[in-house]
Amino acid sequence: MKTIRLHGVGDLRYHDETIPVAGAGEKLVRVKSVGVCGSDLHWFSGCGIGDAKLERPLVLGHEFAGELEDGQRVAVDPAIPCGHCEPCLHGHPNLCLSIIFAGYGTQDGSMREWMAWNAQCLFPIPDSLTFEDGAMLEPLGVAIHAVDLAHLKAGMSVGVFGCGPIGLLIIQMAKIAGAAKIFATDKLPHRVEAAKAFGADHAILAGTNSEVEEIRAETKDRGLDVVFESAGTQDAVDTSFATAMMGGKVMLVGIPDEERTSFSASTARRKGLTIKMVRRMKHTYPRAIELVSKGLVDVRSIVTHRFSLDQAEEAYRVAERREGLKVILEF
Ligand SMILES: [Zn+2]
Ligand SMILES: [Zn+2]
């Protein structure tokens, strides 16, 4: 089977490998659709994320859907928690001490034609969902988890700073949760346009230093109940702390390029802010499937580029240049 492995910075290579055999509790999945994620780009452009480094040629890909041998179409949760460590028992499988995650560390992901995966992590999708929709359930899960953690209440005003696919999905989830007003920013004009299209009331081009003023003016100096940082940049972190209201909540969702994130301690303390770090998701697939199949969330319009497996490198280059929104590989 065709397999693509990352060997070094920007170095994706084709391999012809044997089809894996499903072990106990596993099923064989014929991969059909794989999304390219911002976190994949950290591996592609820098061979690691934070303290996780490339140890051997790795198959990337954790946003994916496919078909089982009996024809059942499934979306695949890329995380396999152990189920019995302390975080798992505390109800935090996303923080499992021995989690297995596709396309991360030494665990191969889905940029290959077949893979064997834990049967409990395979979620049947209805006929109305395409494989591409199925792959999009993973970033949607991250957005669902972020909004869950924020305990967003109807009528609140919300900021979403960074409008890549995750930010755009957070905008949609915040709307469903009852956000009365959503302010969104991004450095790229096409993403600001997308934010408007997906329901942001005010979409502002970031980097002009006027976004904070504009949000303050619009909220009459009150600020926002909840802000989501979904860019992974210091600028977006700064905007988050500057625009959160007294007693507000700052949700850090983006993966920063640098190892350290900083914020004004006096601002955070004076405002009595609650700061939460968002790590992946918790069993969100069933809800994600409901939301997409009922038409409550639009994942399809977020996909702007489609490539075949043979064009993987080009797909990664396009994603790296942040030209569109979501880039998908189709098998
Ligand atoms: Zn991802
Ligand atoms: Zn565990």
Characterise this structure.
By secondary structure, this protein is α/β, with parallel strands linked by helices. The protein is globular. The protein has 2 domains: 2-124 and 299-330, Medium-chain alcohol dehydrogenases, catalytic domain (Quinone Oxidoreductase, Chain A, domain 1, Alpha-Beta Complex), CATH 3.90.180.10; 142-277, NAD(P)-binding Rossmann-like Domain (Rossmann fold, 3-Layer(aba) Sandwich), CATH 3.40.50. Helix 3 crosses helix 4 and helix 3 crosses helix 9. 46% of the residues are buried. The mean pLDDT is 96. The protein contains 10 helices and 19 strands. The strands form 5 sheets. Strands 3, 6, 7, 10, 11, 18 and 19 form a 7-stranded mixed sheet that branches. The chain has a 6-stranded parallel sheet with strand order 14-13-12-15-16-17, with helices on both faces. It binds zinc ion (2 copies). One zinc ion is lined by residues 37, 39, 62-63, 138-139.
Keywords:
331 residues, alpha/beta, Quinone Oxidoreductase, Chain A, domain 1, Rossmann fold, seven-stranded mixed sheet, six-stranded parallel sheet, 19 strands, binds zinc ion
